[in-house]
Specification:
The protein contains nine helices and seven strands, in the order βαβαααβαβαββααβα. With 223 residues, the protein is α/β, with parallel strands linked by helices. The chain has a single domain, classed as Rossmann fold. The chain has a five-stranded parallel β-sheet, sandwiched between helices. A two-stranded antiparallel ribbon has the order 5-6. The protein starts with a strand and ends with a helix. Bound molecules: adenosine monophosphate (AMP). The site of adenosine monophosphate has 16 residues, from helix 2 and helix 3.
Length: 223
């Protein structure tokens, strides 16, 4: 089972993705998290990527594409949930070429829709758990509001991502996401157009619903 998930930062993509991942016991391959791991570990790739990430820009394709394709290839047999990649039309095409070449079947593509202003407010409230980045915590969403300064799932310490508190960086990330010509929405449309022909299901979710209602809609469609 292989799934792609699209959604602007702040759309609940991590939360919904974690559900799909759990249901099918998939590897969660998250490009942003891979970069953060490299940065934390002080690797050469991490050092190259850091400046772009802090500015809210895309890390160049010559670093990102091989890094993600490499992780995909080493994923185990249950399959993967790919999150944060592709983020541009070029990455969408390169990924499709790689999947076709390796004979890897795509089963679902999920797109979460959310207006840009709503997404921005949600990002500013987001908090990261030290134990698991997919434990949902957001100061501005009642259903997942942390208790004090600790994770509501496991009690782990919470931190803010530096790029989550910088309005300019958020705008830049959203400029990339909502760009329908070359950006992430264009990448999503690339897969939407392919879906019927290539035999995978394209699922669209309304990101303004409650976490539970989105979850229900998603689970009913993942069969
Ligand atoms: P995320 O955790 O998905 O918000 O990603 C954090 C940052 O990592 C992004 O703002 C980009 O700088 C970088 N990044 C993540 N995925 C990609 C990608 N597919 N292409 C280029 N840069 C990426």
């Amino acid at each position: 089972m292989n799934i792609l998930i699209f959604g602007p930062n702040g759309s609940g993509k991590g939360t919904q993705g974690a559900l799909a991942k759990k249901k099918f016991e998939l590897d969660h391959i998250e490009s942003g998290a891979i970069f953060r791991k490299h940065i934390g570990g002080g690797t050469e790739l991490g050092m190259k990527a850091k400046a772009f990430i802090e500015k809210g820009e895309l890390v160049p394709d010559d670093i990102t594409i091989p890094m993600v394709l490499d992780v995909l290839q080493s994923s185990d047999e249950n399959g993967w949930l790919l999150d944060g990649f592709p983020r541009s039309i070029v990455q969408a095409q390169k990924l499709w070429e790689a999947l076709e070449k390796d004979g890897v079947k795509l089963d679902y593509v999920i797109e979460i829709l959310l207006p840009r202003e709503v997404a921005k407010n949600r990002i500013m409230g987001r908090r990261l758990c030290e134990n698991d980045p997919n434990h949902p915590n957001n100061k501005f969403i009642d259903a997942i509001k942390p208790e004090g300064d600790v994770c509501r799932v496991c009690g782990g310490a919470l931190t803010e991502r530096a790029d989550d508190q910088d309005g300019d960086a958020i705008n830049k990330r959203h400029d990339i996401y909502y760009d329908e010509t070359t950006g992430t929405v264009a990448a999503a449309y690339f897969y939407k157009d392919l879906a019927a022909k290539a035999g995978f299901k394209y699922i669209t979710l309304d990101g303004e619903g409650t976490i539970d209602s989105i979850k229900e809609t998603l689970m009913a469609q993942l069969v």
